[in-house]
Amino acid sequence: MAASKVSSVVVGIVFVVVVAMGVRMMIGQTRTEKLPAPVLDEQHAGAGSAGHSETAVFAGGCFWGVQTTFERIKGVEKTWAGYSGGSKETANYGAVSSETTGHAESVKVVFDPSKISYGTLLRVFFSVVHDPTELNRQGPDVGTSYRSVIFYNSPEQERIAKAYIAQLDGAKAFPRKIVTQVVPLLAFYDAEDYHQDYAEKNPDNPYIQVCDIPKVKALQAQFPELFQEYGKK
After folding, report:
1. For a designed S-S bond to 4, which of 10, 43, 68, 137 qualifies (C-beta 3.0 to 4.6 A apart)?
2. What are the residue ranges spanned by the domains of the chain?
3. Start-to-end CA span in the chain (Å)
4. What is the mean pLDDT of the chain?
């Protein structure tokens, strides 16, 4: 999300160019069927997990759309937009936008494994949140801060993520190979306050309407059993 994104004028120009070129803005606009469920998933998910929360961190382009999509999944308790992959000193929007920090715009997801599994979150991540075959970009946003990354915080999450990518690639679920990185979570730094729930606070922003609202609609269409309205827990 370059700084110019905030300018509706520039966004309008981007919108015209993107539509004219027929560029896919997100996976949710082109995929009509949800991906298969992971063969390997958490073994402890279910009633026995009640009262216990887990944390997952995903990066898949601009964190505005990633956050607003995960916020609408049953079993997700809280999300934060932020930065992962770089140092604390460079964990700010100005520095990250320079594409020199190593950070990716990321979203931390706290979820209840008695209601939703880590593997199911991965399924949504690959199905409607972003296009995992785009390298260092998503739609009109270009740079390593928009790369596709799964930041795992346990050996179990690492196994499940790598197994699911291998499963999808083996099934040729996408026309191109998945480029999503699977790396350990070293730290997550909250983004500035104005980035938190940005899509909810700015629904008329042209960027949100073009790039993010279709993701929410795709979530509702493909995963009606998981969908909930924003703010409903």
Report:
1. 10
2. 3-222
3. 29
4. 88
